[in-house]
């Protein structure tokens, strides 16, 4: 039996970036490389990188990390990128996010940070199996 206990508490940094350069967003090789650099700068370990192209342009890039994941979804025709950096434990998602911001140079940024992996408070209402947008039910 594995006695290793994995951390469940973590932070999710979510970025919506507008006004990014078309060519930068449509260059999967460069973005994948910079995403790997961002994760490593943040103290995270890259296990795998997956790239899915879209027609006529754009990519979804997923880095599977030993601490969780980093994703970049691009819509070059709109100058838009959606980035999530989620890490449990000791990684620094804000460091990875700042590296990617420096590369993408957006004109507009919407950023959110969410704590994840925390247990629901005692006595919280039970989850009935139906998720509705905007709901915050605890199991």
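Sequence proposed for the structure above (139 residues):
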């Amino acid at each position: 039996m594995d006695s290793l206990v994995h951390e469940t508490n973590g932070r999710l940094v979510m970025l919506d970036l507008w006004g990014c350069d078309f060519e930068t967003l449509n260059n999967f090789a460069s973005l994948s490389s910079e995403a790997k650099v961002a994760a490593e700068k943040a103290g995270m370990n890259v296990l795998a990188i997956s790239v899915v192209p879209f027609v006529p342009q754009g990519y979804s890039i997923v880095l599977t990390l030993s601490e969780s994941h980093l994703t970049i979804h691009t819509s070059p025709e709109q100058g838009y990128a959606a980035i999530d950096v989620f890490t449990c434990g000791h990684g620094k998602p804000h460091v990875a996010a700042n590296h990617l911001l420096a590369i993408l140079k957006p004109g507009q940024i919407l950023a959110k940070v969410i704590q994840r992996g925390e247990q629901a408070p005692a006595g919280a209402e039970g989850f009935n199996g139906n998720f509705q947008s905007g709901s915050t039910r605890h199991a």
